[in-house]
Amino acid sequence: MERRAYLGVAAAGLVLAGGRYATMLDGQAVPDGIDVATEHVVDDVLEGGLSTQQGPDEYPVHYYHLVPDEASASAALTEEASRKSFVQETEFDRSVLLVVQYMMSSEQWLTLEQIERIEDGLAVAVDTESPAGEYVQDEGVHSLMIRITDDKGTIPTELRVSVNSERIDV
């Protein structure tokens, strides 16, 4: 009987803590007037994304691309990515799509850390998450699609994007 009571209390605590954590992130990560949705894809969703860019010595490890409208989405996204419900549900008259890419292990994933307003646009911070355990060396392109709906209704003219606090220059 004590075990059931303990499990019930533990479960209630996790639910409450999880709700508090989500509220805390919602309150701190995104400014008022901005709505955000994300989808992580272990693949290159861009026609000119990381998998197609080769420098003199190696591939770049990160990249981002802003998709401001439906015509740009058709040109920038791969055919497979364009068919994803996440992209199809984007109302480009109200939203923009930001694709952040990072070359890393298949065991990792990208998460949105924070969005801040800056003078003429947005600062977007993305973080990498890893499960506990051994690192797998099978690097591939990861794409985080971020749908940003701003009540101001403007397309950001300036973007500052960082992954793991390292600014991406495109």
TrEMBL record:
Q: Which organism is it from?
A: Halovivax ruber (strain DSM 18193 / JCM 13892 / XH-70)
Organism's domain of life? Archaea
Recorded protein name is Uncharacterized protein
